[in-house]
Structures are given as structure tokens and as C-alpha cells.
Amino acid sequence: MSETPTEPDSGRRVQAVQISCTILEALREMDGAGVSELADRLGRSKATVHTHLATLADNEFVVNNGGTYEISLKFVDIGEYAKNQIDIYEVAKAEVDRLAEETGEVAQFMVQEHGRGVYLHKACGENAIQTASHTGTRKHLHCTALGKAILSQRSTNEIDRIIDRHGLSRRTENTITTRGELFDALETIRAEGVAFDDEEVLQGLRCVAAPIDNPTGDPCGAISISGPTSRFKGDRFHEELPEIVRGAANVIEVNATQV
To answer: Is residue 111 part of a domain?
Structure first.
């Protein structure tokens, strides 16, 4: 799940499979759609889109609700299977839940796949604010505390490949957008064992994260606490929460040796 991204294979691709994948992504983004809507969005003929949808429906990957096609619940089963392939998932989940209860904020666990961060678990404490992330959400690594924590455990070559593939897009005026800035930040994270998101994804939102190593020493994810700038400031943001999140990461690493 957290494999290092590699250069795309130069071998042949199956166009029909690519079209089906594009249709599935579009259905998710559009929250369901009809044949005509999908055809217009994808620049494909209605006949082509309908053929792919019919095939996907036959295989139970989509459902047809009165002419509106939607992603099916089959992906829940597939997603749960994929999530449980992460050796430390249950250990990390328990610690994320504890962090949310202890701090009253949003706590999350992320791994890396295909050069992006994937949220695998999220828990909300009693004072937690609403955030757009949910289990399965994919984010660029350079602009989140979780992502930077993960990148800090990667080699320079691995990081370069991720940047080449996904870029360093700007989300706010605080977002890191150059390689030099990013590598400087990662050096600090390695030294301190903690990463910060200081309104780099969303104005008014801050986050503190720590990388998690598996028992063999290979990087396998990161854990975080997020909240509003009104509560994430001063010693709490720079000292108290970093200590808490580093401790949580250590608990996961220790408990992972029993997995």
C-alpha cells in the first residue's frame, strides 16, 4: 500500500479498461450521473459510455438508479480488504481514537500510495471542527503535516520522483511550492520528529503530525492532530501537541512489534 512510486511502465495499455476507470472516477466526482452527462464530461459517445456502464453494472461495480448511475457498495468491500492489508492498521486506529478523545480534536492516520497520501482512519473529539477529509481521501504530500512526515522518511530520489509526478501545487499563501523549501522543511522534521501544517491547506486550520516506522525500520505512515488556529497556537501548537503526537507514533511502533 505504501510502495515507492516508480516511473510509469512504457508497456501497452488497454484502452477499454482506461475508459472504464475514467468513468468510475467521474461518477465519484459527479456523485452519480446519467449517460448523457458522462458522455459530455468525458468527450465520449453515448454509445461508448453506455456500453461501459452496462458492463460495470453487470459486474456490480455500478448501480443504475432510474437512469442515474452510481458507484456501488462493492467498493466498500474492496476498500475494507485493502485497508486491512496494512499491518498496523488496527494498532494505528486504536491510537487515533485515543488521541481524538484525549485532545478533543481531529486525529488521523495516513499512508502513502502512488505518491499521494491516503487517509485510512479519522476520529473526531468532542471539540473537533469539520474537515473535508475522510477515509480514502487522497492528498498531495507536500502541503499536509501528515504528508510531510511521510516524505521525511523517504530518500531524496523517492521525493524527487513524487514531485515530478504530482508537482508542488499551491493551496494557500503558506503552501510550500519549491523543492528547496520542501527539502529544508523535511530536514527539520527529521531532526525534530514532528511535522507542521500552518494553514498550508486551508486558512484557519493547523495540524501536527509524526511519522510512524514499522518494526523493520521502513516508513509506513503518519499520525496527526488537527484543529483551528484559535486553539492551535503558542505552546500548545509548538510543544504540547508535538509531544502528544510523537508519543502516539511511538506507541504504534511499539505495539506494531506484536502484530
So the answer is: yes
